[in-house]
Amino acid sequence: MKVKLLLAIMAAALGFASACPAQSQDLASQIVGVWKYVSVNNKEVATGKMTYPLGEKPIGYIVYTKGGRVIFTVVGDKRPQPAGSGATDAERVSLFNTLSAGSGTYKIEGNTGMVTYDSSWHQLWTGTTQKRTYAISGNKLTITSAPTKLADGKEIIFEVVLERVE
Predict the structure, then answer these.
(1) Which of 55, 93, 111, 133 could be disulfide-bonded to 77 (CB atoms 3.0-4.6 Å)?
(2) What pTM did the predictor assign?
(3) Hey, where are the domains in the chain?
(4) Cα-to-chain-centroid distance, residue 138
(5) What Rg value do the Cα atoms of the chain yield, rounded?
(6) Closest CA to 6 of 102, 127, 104, 128
(7) In whole angstroms, how far apart are CA 51 and each of 10, 28, 39, 86, 154?
(8) Helix ranges restricted to H, 21-136
């Protein structure tokens, strides 16, 4: 189930739209650069309950290029350390459950941004296009999803907060 939560969360990390329609053209230039993960949270629509599937301080970056490419990787803040020099199958599963990565192309149309994945850590996104809403304020980028149903049937809204690095 953790993998399913991470799927929903990370899908948010690569979609785009502006908080204000007049800024949509500007968003295309504002988004270019390197962004560091600050937080990732899920809010259950029915209860308002907040969860942090990657912990309080996820570790990773998203890079957006002028040419319309995007690549990201993020891991949880409390990842288990393998016992030996190589990870066992069980340790690899645990590590996989706190990882997300992908790449693709992005474009902005009006207030909506879309990412079309050409690779993804779990193959479920590869070949798909996803839309998200973005708001930039100073050096912070906040990505908020539309309500999304998880595999367990719960409806959530996820939010990713990033901070500009370059």
Answers:
(1) 55
(2) 0.81
(3) 2-164
(4) 20
(5) 16
(6) 102
(7) 14, 30, 11, 31, 12
(8) 24-30, 89-96
Which residue type is seen at 124?
A: L
CA atoms within 13 A on the CB side of 40: 26
Residue closest to 10 by CA, chosen among 44, 67, 60 = 60
Lowest mean pLDDT among 23-32, 47-56, 74-83: 23-32
CB 75 within 8 A of CB 98: yes
Strands (E), the chain: 16-17, 33-44, 50-51, 59-64, 69-75, 99-109, 112-120, 129-137, 140-144, 148-149, 155-164
> Where does the pLDDT of residue 127 fall: very low under 50, low under 70, confident under 90, or very high at 90 and above?
very high
- Output DSSP code: residue 117: E
CATH class of the domain whose range is 2-164: mainly beta
Residue 1: pLDDT band (50, 70, 90) is low
- Tokens representing 69 are 């490419």
3-state secondary structure of 32: coil
CA–CA gap between residue 7 and residue 117 (Å, rounded)? 13
Answer for the pair 159, 41: CB distance below 8 angstroms, yes or no.
yes
